[in-house]
Design brief:
- The protein has helices at about 15-45, 50-75, 80-100, 105-130, 135-165, 175, 180-195, 205-230, 235-260, 270, 275-305, 310-315, 320-330, 340-360, 375-395, 405-435, 440-445, 450-465.
- The protein is mostly helical.
- It contains 18 helices and no strands.
- About 80% of the residues lie in helices and about 0% in strands.
Length: about 475
């Protein structure tokens, strides 16, 4: 397999990256910003509990299902074109959300947002993978790691500010309308600053594979969303089991296409490479830990100790500050010691999660926004140290022709990991909370998952190093 294509000449990769990450950031904060607004939306639109739940579920499902196909569409149709189209669709859907006259329109617009997000997100890292020379990729991926991590914690903070301000009497609607100027800026500037890269227009799209992959992802993600809220009824377990034969059919089809010399939705060369699969497994584990942690922390701060949504957002601010520091440090190492830097980040997060579990489980009577600053900053530092080298490990030798498929596949499994993590962590939290309404004991119970995750990541890294296996796609 050939190595990645050389960076295009006459391109300012940093200007393009700023716009790419601005588009990505809009998508990232929309995942979490909505949670702060759900009570206001329910009151304003008279929504039921099920309808409120689907404001988030419609977005997550559409986004997860579309990531891999849209990554491949970018390889065929052009990544710049698909990114800008995705930003445009996401922005339009955001306006529809902000102007929604009833809950059904809002749910439909959220699904449209998810499709727009799936169109643009895989192109971000696929374009960055091609436009940067190897010696600059570490800093670029470090910056991407900062943006990805900031998205998890900026949403609640920004949502708290916008809702508390009640600008022009719009209540919750500005959390969506704020995307309009950002999206327009990215689209207009992107036409000039994002380079037009070579595409594979002769590539055939595997529509049967698209359908099987979408069904398999739905069969996994849907019960992970619904299960914790409904008490895991029988159909959620049946749905999860049904994902296994559907996934097997998808893989069988990809094998058959390769044998016939035809293009695959998820290239089999990636699925045969143990290094790539190990890297994706670590990505999936890593990102299964963070969204669930912030979900239970928001409940812990607001319901358990009476903090406002804005105070809750401020309480998590040390996490992105730690990320910035960790990303700055790791970005200076370039492509050196990638596995060691991922391991260091995981070890720091393991220690940070143990500290957070102890501190949150034994809170002072006057708990405030700064009480958990130390362990949250330490966890942010670990994440900042790990994200850039982790992405480099997964993508460093992926050829430019299949970069969209590789990044789309990686991010699809990242979303699956997030859904699984939220389901597990929320279940652990609420099972313990029902015993005696002790939020401190409940969060200690829930954070056991995060501790197990980072211990597992360190184990995977140690086994890969001990076996001497490569982490990149082999030629």
């Amino acid at each position: 397999m050939p190595h990645p294509a050389s960076p295009p000449k006459g391109v300012n990769p940093w200007a393009a990256t700023v716009l790419l990450l601005m588009g990505n950031f809009m998508n990232l904060i929309d995942v979490s910003i909505v949670n702060v607004a759900l009570p206001s939306i329910r009151t304003d639109l008279g929504a039921s509990e099920t309808q409120i739940e689907w404001i988030s579920a419609a977005y997550v499902l559409a986004f997860a299902v579309g990531l891999l196909p849209c990554g491949r569409f970018g390889d065929k149709l052009g990544r710049k074109r698909l990114f800008l189209s995705g930003v445009g669709l996401f922005t339009l859907a955001s306006v529809l959300c902000g102007l929604a006259p009833d809950i059904n329109v809002l749910i439909g617009a959220r699904a449209l947002q998810g499709i727009g997000g799936a169109m643009m997100v895989p192109q971000v890292m696929a374009i960055m993978h091609v436009i940067f020379p190897p010696e600059q990729k570490a800093k670029a991926f470090a910056l991407a790691g900062v943006v990805i991590s900031l998205g998890a914690v900026t949403g609640p903070l920004l949502g708290g500010v916008l809702i508390s301000g009640n600008f022009y009497g719009l209540e919750w609607r500005p959390i969506f309308l704020v995307n309009l100027p950002v999206g327009l800026l990215v689209v207009l500037a992107g036409f000039w600053l994002i380079p037009r890269l070579e595409s594979s227009r002769d590539m055939a799209i595997d529509w049967w594979g698209v359908g099987l992959f979408g069904l398999a992802i739905t069969l996994v993600v849907l019960p992970m969303i619904e299960g914790p809220l409904l008490g895991w009824p029988w159909w959620t377990l049946v749905t999860l089991v049904a994902a296994i034969p559907v996934g097997a059919l998808f893989l069988r089809r990809q094998h058959a296409l390769e044998a016939e010399g035809r293009e695959q939705l998820l290239p089999m060369v990636l699925l045969r490479d143990r290094g790539f699969l190990s890297g994706v497994a670590v990505v999936m584990l890593h990102f299964s830990a963070i969204p669930g942690m912030f979900l239970v922390l928001a409940i812990y701060f607001q319901t358990g100790f009476g903090l406002t949504p804005l105070e809750s957002g401020v309480a998590t601010a040390p996490f992105p500050l730690g990320i910035m520091l960790g990303s700055y440090v790791t970005g200076r190492f370039g492509t050196r010691a990638l596995v060691g830097r991922v391991a260091l980040g995981a070890a720091v997060m393991l220690a940070g999660m143990i500290w957070l579990r102890h501190a949150a489980g034994h809170p002072p009577a006057d708990l405030g926004p700064g009480t958990l600053a130390g362990p949250l900053a330490m966890n942010g530092l670990g994440m900042g140290l790990a994200i850039s080298p982790l992405f480099q490990l997964v993508l460093r030798d992926v050829p430019g022709r299949i970069a969209g498929a590789a990044t789309g596949g990686m991010q699809a499994f990242q979303q699956i990991g997030a859904a699984i993590g939220i389901a597990i962590v929320s279940s652990l939290f609420f099972v313990r909370l029902r015993v005696d309404q002790d939020h401190a004991a409940a969060i200690g119970h829930a954070l056991s998952y995060q501790i197990s995750v980072f211990a597992a990541i360190l184990t995977v890294l140690a086994l890969r190093q001990w076996r001497g296996d490569r982490w990149a796609v082999t030629p």
